[in-house]
User: What shape does this take?
Amino acid sequence: MRVFIFFIISITMASMAVFLSFVQKSRKDLFRKTRKHGIIRTILEAASVTDEETYKIPERHLQRSRTMTPAQFLAFSKHPEQETQAVSRAAEKMEASIQVLKEKLHQKRKRSLFPSDLLSTDVLSKIAGISGCLPHTLPPKCPENCMTRKYRHITGICNNRLHPRWGASNTALARWLPPAYEDGLSQPKGWHSGFLHNGFPLPPVREVTRKIIETSNEAVTEDELHSDIFIVWGQYIDHDLAFTPQSTNQLSLLGKVDCQKTCENQSPCFPIQVSANDTLPMNMDCMPFYRSSPACATGYQGVLLGNLSTLNPRQQINSLTSFLDASTVYGSNPAIESNLRNLTSKEGLLRINLQYFDNGREYLPFVDRVPSPCAQNLKADKVERIECFMAGDSRSSEVISLATLHILWLRQHNRLAKVLKKLNPQWSSEIIYQEARKIVGALHQIITIRDYIPKVIGPNAFNQYIGPYKGYNHTVDPTIANVFSTAAFRFAHTAINPIIKRLNAQYQNDPNLPNLHLHEVFFTPWRLIKEGGLDPLLRGMLTTAAKLQVQDQLLNEELTKKLFVLSNNGSLDLASLDLQRGRDHGLPGYNEWREFCGLSRLRTETDLATAIENRDVAKKIMELYGNPNNIDVWLGGIVENILPGARTGPLFACIIGKQMKALRDGDRFWWENINVFTDSQKHELRKYSLSRLICDNTDLTALPLDVFMLGKFPEDFESCENIPNINLGAWQETLQPEFTCGLPKRVENGDFVHCSEEGKSKVTYSCYQGYKLQGEAQLSCTKKRWNIDPPVCQDINECENKTNPPCHSSARCENTKGSFQCLCTEPYELAEDGQICTDSGRLPKSSVVAIILGIILCCCLAVASWFMICHCRTNSAGGSTNSHTLQDGRNLSAEGHCTNCHEMNASQSSITINPADKDNPSPCILLCM
Assistant: This one.
């Protein structure tokens, strides 16, 4: 009985340990969910809405699988950086809150959302403040000092002193025409299946791809004029100008739908429908599609903020600076810039990869958060991983040809910085970094406007829309237009070659480096590092023709069937994504934009045939769209007849030309503007070309003078010795700064730049990311002494930011020197964004310990019980092993005496019996006295 009790106690204790561990885990779940409701509860309470069940955020489980789906790759490449995440989240919180309020107010008052007496200004302001939107709508303060006059801010802020947000990162894209939403505010065209446009429903975008756009790899016509690098440069520059983040929430904020699983239109999900007879490799009902994040105070938010009588339709964010400023190299916010810099270097260098080198030349560093989703070589050692590259733009690893350009500019910056340091040893690392960055930005501008854009839009359109430079114009808004980034500058998708070639030093095929299909180079940095480096790929790009834009050969099947396909678990279609994105952004139709550019409207199929010489294509478009006014602007732009000497039709030539002129004329730091560079420096910059960039940063020794033009080796190639180069002597300071006050004092965790203004030496201090200046930023040399003491750089406690917390409410924020970290409690772990805690699916350590202890205790009790049983059966006197056990449990000695009084130390008397009769216990009578 006692043994049985011991076992019951052991099992009970072990079970209790397990139970308590799960109770602990469940309490954490409840606590976390309660915290998740915090912000919205406050907003809803402020609006007198108390039913919390109207807003639920489902648990988000981020699982890292070995092979990612194409949609996950797209989400990774579209994943915004932390600062952009904050802006996007604020806007989405605001939008979700407004939708909740809309539903509740309709339920309570049974009347329209829009009467001006519905919500007070105080309530709306409170909602805007709590959501985090308010700070992103207020004008910033523009400091006026030596630093801001000499170098552009990394965010592009205050480029225009009167309109400081023009062209800055994390601001709304510009609208050149009012958007076209089905509800006038936010819902994209095609949102409602029964909605008619000019009497016809819009065709599903996948059907447009299949019937008009898609062509096989074998049907591609090559461009006889332009090389593959012509197209790669277009993608690279596009990534310098615009990046619109998609919704930051994988699951709907309203907790009703998962965009990875649903085929219903419910924000932020706008899935691409797939017909039953589609030719995609997987059986799919739809392709996942996330809407782009809204900008604060637009859409439904705009109705409730400010002037309620004026609608402010949904706008989308550009997370990059609009300027041609090499943000692909340096980033568009201070956190990215700081992470890319080698702050321990005295030469103002950028970080490099310390694991791998390309014949002694640098590669980009790997991303900090590992494992990254980039594909691995399946034939390589499983222990070795080659992660995604880290650059100024998060899309640098999308294809290896794009990564090649990113790597070239990394090498160029570091090469320039080292030479500048030798020429000017007195310069601080900050000055060297800023001067090298300034040169690299200028070279991006020169190569793009002088060498690239005229080939895209043609010489006539260039003269019409851009023309010669006449200086900075502060009335010109350089902000990237929505139609430019979402439609016009995506013209090059029709010119992508499906084959990637890698050639040896004689520009011949290398058996060790075979040709690859495009889908084999998506997110594969390992191919650069392990398969020959940059040189073989560049040789292939220089001598491989771009695909020609032909009206019945638009996008090859590598892009329409195999986009981001690294396995058999799905597919994406770039053409459908482009069309769907245009509808998501509310872009007006093709005819509206033709009218905007002064071109005639097309009203009939005959009219359409004048713009599209291929009548079969024009007929198919009319059959699908029903009315020319319904044609998506991207489709209309890519099927137009190409202009002479161009690679676009008249509509996209107009839009691209207008945008480039705005970028140039509205940029205070444009390389040709006065006081940006000296005349001798401008003279040197004009010599540079993309050919020279490749000569300077690879082992290639001969190149075409214009690498955008298709060349044959060796007749069209020129020795690098004959390709003009910059003489950096123009940047050497011939007159040393008048440091009559002595050298400026350096500050810890910061640096300074110096300049001479109005005959005075001035120094402007700045702190590294994560620190803030305490004291005056600028010092002046007056009467042989600095007018004030230098400032200090104090660590910022990011965790004290209550308006825009750096960590999600599910995580605990801990301040570190120059930064912070988000921490999770077991069994939760940080998601890939580094801010949200997600369930790891594991038991917490405390529960595991409790279970182990319970098992150990159970085993110990079991052993102890067994020992006691054995001990009870042992002769208390250490009796002979020859004793026998009677059926009633008493022992019979070899001599036939009864020897056990039930373990009692009592005097006893026994009767001798015959051992042969041991099976009969009755003769044995024990008398215990």
About this structure: The chain has a mean pLDDT of 82. The domain at 327-589+632-722 is CATH 1.10.640.10 (Myeloperoxidase, subunit C).
